[in-house]
Amino acid sequence: MNFMERRGSGFKKIKGDYRKEVNYKESLEPQFYSDNKSFWVTLYNLNYDVPIEKKEKVAIGDEKVAIGDEKVTIESINRKCENAGITNIMREHIIEFYQLAREGQIFGRKDIADYLNFSYANAGKVITAMKKAEIITTVEGKGKGKYLFSNTFISFDEIKVDNVNH
């Protein structure tokens, strides 16, 4: 821009707030332009071309994640989210948090906001989506708004049983 940013101009705040949004992509980063007479800021619509209830498959792969003594595939979470009509971007955020969370970890909105670098409002949207997909359960006795990933979303065909005695 050929100008020094003045303290408190808000450029960093604008960029930081954009990065915290659920639908943020690097290609949608705010752009700042100036010349001798004018100053322009281009703020891209983060909700443009984001389907509300689009059901597409996300290519996540067959990555294994440990939950207790059982092995669960990311695909089971993906399938549960897909069946609930969760958008691709939201599914990616859910899976990212699932991979970052420690095994058996009780979490809340603040934890999601910290792990994913989201605002509390967007962390709440992630929790709402996980509830809708029925992949988390509410934890009682640990305070309001505490959750745990549920193992009830695992389908029996995904659990391999060894040494079955008849």
Index terms:
6 strands, two-stranded antiparallel sheet, Arc Repressor Mutant, subunit A, disordered C terminus, single chain, 166 residues, 5 helices, alpha+beta
Overview of the molecule:
This protein has 166 residues and is an alpha+beta fold. The chain is 33% helix and 13% strand. The chain has a domain at 64-158: Arc Repressor Mutant, subunit A, CATH 1.10.10.10. It is built from 5 helices and 6 strands. The strands form 3 sheets. It has a two-stranded antiparallel ribbon with strand order 1-2. Strands 3-4 form a two-stranded antiparallel ribbon. Helix 4 crosses helix 5.
Secondary-structure map:
Elements: H1 11-20, E1 31-34, E2 39-42, E3 64-67, E4 70-73, H2 74-83, H3 88-100, H4 109-116, H5 120-132, E5 136-138, E6 147-149
Helix pairs in contact: 4-5
Side-by-side strand order of the widest sheet: 1-2
Q: Assign a percent range to the helix content.
A: 25-40%
Named CATH architecture of one domain: Orthogonal Bundle
Q: For the terminal residues, how far apart are their CA atoms?
A: 75 Å
Count of individual helical segments: 5
The fraction of residues in strands falls at 5-15%
Largest sheet: 2 strands, antiparallel
Fourth-level CATH superfamily of one domain: Winged helix-like DNA-binding domain superfamily/Winged helix DNA-binding domain
Rg (CA only): 20 Å
**Order of helices and strands, N to C?**
HEEEEHHHHEE
Helix/strand/pairing class, anyone? alpha+beta
Mean pLDDT: 74
- Overall geometry comes to elongated
